[in-house]
Amino acid sequence: MIHRKMSSMDHQMPIENELAPLRRSRREAIRWLGAGLGVVASRGLLSASATPKGPIVRTILEDIPPDRLTGMTLFHEHLSMSSGDGKPIFYDDIDLMVDEVRACAADGVSCIVDAGVSGLGRKIAALRTIAQRSGMYIVAGGGLHAKSDYPQDVFQKTADQVADDLVALAKAERWGIIGEMGTGTDLPMDPEERKGFKAAAKAHTRTGLAIITHVSDGCVQCALDQVDLLEAEGVNLQRAVIGHLNDITDDLTAASIAIARRGANLGFDHSARPDDPRIDEYVRTILAVLEAGYEDRIFLSSDFASSRRLRKNGGPGIDMTVTTFVPRLRKAGVNDAVLHRVLVENPPRLLAFVPKDT
């Protein structure tokens, strides 16, 4: 999530979709994913008394086996958030959000990970309602976005105490992932944010939940500091996604491959905005990461947070990753088998865990 205050009028004007010729039609998406859409229609077949054995994916409504997610997963989006100034915002319209999420399902998306936290105004009740009414599997995140959004009591607590709070909230709110955990651009890392990251690492160890991070303003060293801290705290880096890598302007490709070599996953979650002048650079970076052999580390999403990109307003939708960016990758030569690995296979592998202290 871009760290800024959102206005109730944020991007209300429709945008012209320049990429209409590149869009994948619903028929093509259904053909490509095969039975992917069926998983959304089959929701609710797993009752509470039939909790799956072994690794599970924890959605906001139920625990499911990872192989239930046979469609695409958008790993870093926002389906609920506040404006930051108390004014109404499009997220408040649950009917609208249900319609937008249903449109994602029609494009072959079977799961959306909401990477919001309470400091961003994410409402767990809203996520539950959207999941119930849309039939979409929704995974809720939670944690500490950035120091400016921390609850005041965090500043008086130790990392262990904050970890206790995160574990308790993960259980109460049914988190399926920790994050987005954010840091600013301070070098070295701000002490309070360092404490927050240590707490997230401790909560990860106790719960088994993976971690999504927020890197501010394209700060390469900040991203590497996140990797260093998580590794030092005992996190298996294959269970962490370093987020917002698209914002890096100082040799994005080299930075991405350096992070992948460390063992962490790559969050290309600002790739899909059709009016982004760097979108072709993102494609080239993905191609380079694939060429380097790291297709299992790539995670694509859009960090959705703009009303002008709603389908209702003429935009590409919450799943703009599917409607605008994937066609560019295919045009650049990425085949369907690789896209399936990235969009369908990688996310459940990250989300799957054996419940511990939850």
What is the strand arrangement across the widest sheet? Answer: 6-7-8-9-10
The CATH C-level class name:
Alpha Beta
Number of helices: 11
What is the rounded distance between the termini?
26 Å
Approximately what portion of the residues adopt beta-strand conformation? 5-15%
| Major pleated sheet | 5 strands, parallel
Helix-strand pattern: HHEEEHEHEHEHEHEHEHEHH
Number of domains: 1
Q: Supply the helix-strand structural class.
A: alpha/beta
Query: Gyration radius, to the nearest Å?
Result: 19 Å
Q: Let me know the average pLDDT.
A: 88
CATH topology: TIM Barrel
Structure characterization notes:
- The chain is α/β, with parallel strands linked by helices.
- It has a single domain, classed as Alpha-Beta Barrel (TIM Barrel), CATH 3.20.20.
- 37% of the residues lie in helices and 11% in strands.
- The chain contains 11 helices and 10 strands.
- The strands form 3 sheets. It has a 5-stranded parallel sheet. A 3-stranded parallel sheet has the order 3-4-5.
- Helix 3 packs across helix 4 (124-134) and helix 5 crosses helix 6.
